[in-house]
Protein: Assimilatory nitrate reductase catalytic subunit
Organism: Silvimonas terrae
Amino acid sequence: MKTITRSTCCYCGVGCGVLIESDGEKITGIQGDPAHPANYGRLCTKGMTLPLTVASKTNRALYPEIRINRDSERQRVDWDTALDTVALKFADIIRQHGPDAVAFYISGQLLTEDYYVFNKLAKGLIGTNNIDTNSRLCMSSAVSGYKLSLGADGPPTCYEDLELADCVLFAGSNMAWAHPVLYRRLEAAKATRADVKWIVIDPRRTDTAAMADLHLQIQPGTDVALFNGMLHHLIWEDLIDPQFVAEHTDGFAELKQLVRDYTPRMAAEICGITEADLMTAAEWFGRSQGALSLYCMGLNQSAHGTDKNLALINLHLATRQIGKPGAGPFSLTGQPNAMGGREVGGMATMLAAHRDITNADHRAEIARLWGIDTERLSPTPGLPAVEMFNAIRAGKIKALWIACTNPVHSMPDLNLIREALDTAEFVVVQEAFLNTDTVPYADVVLPAATWGEKSGTVTNSERRISRVRPAIQGPGEVRGDWWIANEVARRLEAQIHPARFSLFGFANEEQVFNEHRRLTEGKDLDITGLSYGVLESHGPQQWPMPIVEAYGETRGQARRYEDGVFATADGKARFNVTPYLPVAEPTNSRYPFHLLTGRLRDQWHGMSRTGRVPRLFAHTPEAALTMNPLDAERRGLKAGELVKVSSKRGGLILPLGLSDEVTTGSVFAAMHWNGQFLNSGGINESTIGAVDRKSFQPELKHAAVRVERA
Ligand code: SF4
C-alpha cells in the first residue's frame, strides 16, 4: 500500500519540505511539499534523488562492530556489547585522566534531538565541554558576527524577504548551486521587478555571479576592505540613517574613524576592482528600499570570518537596512541543522538555548533545569574542532566519539587529522555509511539510521523548525542517533554518577524535544509554544514562539528587531571596528596560486549520500583543478592533463580544467571528492588549519599552492 510521509530534505539549510512515497518497506518516490513555506513544492536535483540514497544496502553500516586491537579487523557484535564497550572505555579514561580526556565531534546533519542528547551527555553527565561539531566549519563566524553586533545568534530575516528586497547583495555565496531552491525564488522575483539589482561579491565568476547586475570579482579574502570602502562612500554621500544610528546603535564614532582611511580608491585597489564599481555597489545598497545581503562560506570559512560578517552588518546598521521587510543580513546556513545544534548548545563554546559557558548564572540555570549540581558543569569552554584534533594528536584527549561526519575528509590539513586519529586511544564512529575516509579509524562502529528512517526536528536558515519523519524502518540493526547516545549515556551514568533518577530517561524523541523547549523559556529563542502537536497541526514554525503566542494568531516570528530593540543588554546594536587583514597564508614565489575551494551543484559534502546516485555525476563527472587558460599557457599545461596541486602541508593529483571563471593567479577545486574517488583525502590535503580567533572557524576557502605537471 502506498504511504505518503511528510518530512524535510536532509541536505542543505534551505530546509525544503518533502513528501516521501513508500510501500512500507522501500521508499518509492519523493515530491516537494507544496505546503512547506521554504520551498512551496520545489526541490533541487539533490532533493529529488534522495530516495536513491537509501535504496541499496551497499556500504551501509548495518550492525555494531568492534575491533579488539588496531591490528585486527572489526567484528560484528550485538548492540549491548557495543554500548557497554563504549561506556566502559569512556568511564575508564574519565577516571584515569579526567573528563576533558574525552571528546565528541558531531554534526550539523544530526537532528535537534540527537544533538540535545549528545550535548547533555558531554556537559551534564561527563562534565566536559569538549563537544564540537562540523558546524564549526560552517556557521561559527556568522554566530560570532550576530552575537557581537546584534546581541544574539540567529538571522533577523526570513525567506519572504527574498521577494521583497530591491537590492540583493550575495557575499561569498554561489547560491545558484548551494541553495538552489531559494535562488529560484530570487530569480522569479527579479523576473517580475525591473528595479531589483543583484550585486555578487566573489573571486570566482560562479553561476550566481554570471547573473549579477554587478559582479565584484575581488581578490581572495579582501571582503572587509570592500565593506569598509562601501561604508566610507555611504557616509560621504550622506546615505546613512543618523537618527537610527543615534537611537539604536553604539560605537559608530570609532568605526567612522577607521573607515575614514578606506577611501573607495584605496579599498578598490586592495580588492582589485574599480573604484566606480565599489561606489555603485554602495549606492545601490544605500539607496534601496530594502537591501538584503545573503552570505555563506565565502565569508565564514576565513581566518577573519567574524570581521567579514561584522563589516557587512556595519553596512546594514548604518543604513537601517535591518528590521524591515526585504532588508537585513541573512546568513545562509550550510548544513540542514547547524541552527538546531546551536539552539541546544551542542558546541564547545556554548550552553543550551543561547546561554554562555563562562556565565555562572547561565550554568546555574542549566544545572537547575537538568537537576544536577552546578559544579558538574565545567566553566571552561571546550576545544573547538581544529584545537580538538590538535589535542588528540598531543595525547591530551584519549577518546573521541565521532557522529555523522567525516573529519578525515572535511577538516583542513588532513595529514594532521589522520595523525590525531592514529594517536587516539579509542575512536568511536557513529555512521550510516561505511565507505567514508573516517570509518577505517574506528575501534567501534555504531550503525545509525539516516534520512527516511529517523524522526525528530531540524531548524532551517530562517529559524523555521520542521519535523523529520521516518517513512521506512532502517536496514539491519540501525538505530536513531539520539537513541544510541542515550543508551551509552545511561550505561556511563551508572559507572561515573549513579543516581536515583537518570538524566537519560528519554523514551522517544518527542520527550527529548519537550525537555529542549523547556530550556528555552524566557530566552531569545523561546519555543515553549511549540510542540510536536503544534508542528503536526500548524506545520513548520519559526522561533521565537513563546507559549503566549501559540494559541493566538501568531505562529512564530518571521522577522526580528523590527522595533529597533536588539538583543544586547541595553537594546542597542553594536558597530564593530573591522580593520582589513589579509589571508592567513599569502601567496609567494614557491606557492604562487590562491587555492579557492567550494561546492558543486549536484554533490553534497563528502558524497557519502550523493555519491550513491549515478545521475548526480552527470553535471560534473570527475574531480578537477580549474585554472585560468592564460596561467596554463604560461606554464605549458593543457586541459585534461594531470597536475599536482600542493601547499606546504600536502597535495594531491587532479586533472586540469581550464576556465576564465577564475582570474589569473587563482585556481579552484571542489570540496567533495575524497578517498572513494581519489588516491587522497581530497583538496583538504592542502588547506590550512588557521582559524578565526573569535569564531575558531578555519580558513578552508583559501591556501597558497603551487601547480605542476604530475
Ligand atoms: Fe534539499 Fe537544499 Fe535542494 Fe531544498 S535546496 S531540496 S533542502 S538540497
Remarks:
- The chain has four domains: 3-53, 65-138+337-519, 140-331, 593-709.
- Residues 239 and 638 are 49 Å apart (CA to CA).
- The chain has a mean pLDDT of 96.
- The first strand starts at residue 3 and ends at 8.
